[in-house]
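go over this:
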Amino acid sequence: MSYRCVLAFLVGWLAALAPAPAQVAQEAGPLVAPVMRSEMDRYAAMLGLDAGQKASLLELFRGYRVALRDAQKQGNEAVERANKADGKDRSQAKWDAVTAYVAKAETLEKSLFEDAAALAGPAKSAEFQRVERARVREVGLKFSFAAGERLDLVRICEEIGVRRTPELGEVLDEYEQRLDRAIADKRRVFKEIFKKVGEAEVKGDSPDHEVLDSFLKSVAEKSYVIRDVNRETTRRVEGFMSDSDREKFGRLVLQRSFPRVYGVGPVEKMLAAAMKLDSLSAEQRKELESFGEAYARDAVGVNKRLADAVEAKQRTVAEKGEAALMTMDREDVQDPLTMARAERTKLDAGWKERISKTLNESQQKDIAKAAVNEQEGRGSPIEDILFDFETDIRGLEDADGGED
């Protein structure tokens, strides 16, 4: 069982993901997260680089990308050669190929950031430390088990334009340092399971359920430490904000803590599609405009119950491990999460019907793609609990890093 499949197994997607051919980027799991072009743009802004310096930084990045793709290619070729060998030799050769790729990727990233630091110069050393911490969060906040763990409060403050005063900067500096330590602890757990999976494969075994259960519980424990740092700092940071900024900040915190609860859902998508119709009458447009706020009011209590149920189930998974995950595909109608999911589905279905009735037949056909079925969209309860895992697993393969 590959490292990638161990992760997939934990969230119930093994059957869907396992048929893909083994690639070193997949086997390396979260130990290798390619630096993305969007990151480099942000880091250039954080460092205050001029146009010439930014061009040089992007040239360094392009060199990194080429080298990383070459390392992947060599690793994949080594895996293909290993697959032609027999027994233990095959497993050992595959393990050697994957570990070599992990080591090479780490070296390439280290070199990229060392060159970037030299480009920025010693006068930017304080800013560059913030860049390095931002990279730690970019990688380390993925594969989150706890709602609120994935938050990057520094980034949210940047997005809403909160000025980093000396007092706020002191709080955020402390926050970054605490997250650095907590993320390092979580990364050690991933490295441990990586080693155990590799050793088992070389021996011709699969990690037993005890190993998987221990991994799940250990990662969850570290995830809650990160979540708690985010929650504590959220309260402190809000004290430095205006009422307007605090409202924006709180909304983004909720949306990113519970993206499948507070993110843009099918009702909002359907309503947005309807509002774009050129064929709307003045009366239709006025009625649809009133629906947004009305739906938001109706959803307050429903969403709170769903978010609470998600958190409670996450805690159960953290405490009971694999046993809790294995029961989630069998929905219990009396389970709080099942009931909360059904309540949200019913609410959305009712509002989608109201929107539809406001439109004529031709207009309904025009927005049909936006009128998705909410129950289909919710998927398995596991996706409500570990909502970012599938995205993170599939993102392991991306070494392109975005456009030039």
Observations:
- The mean pLDDT is 86.
- DSSP finds 20 helices and no strands in the chain.
- Residues 113 and 238 are 32 Å apart (CA to CA).
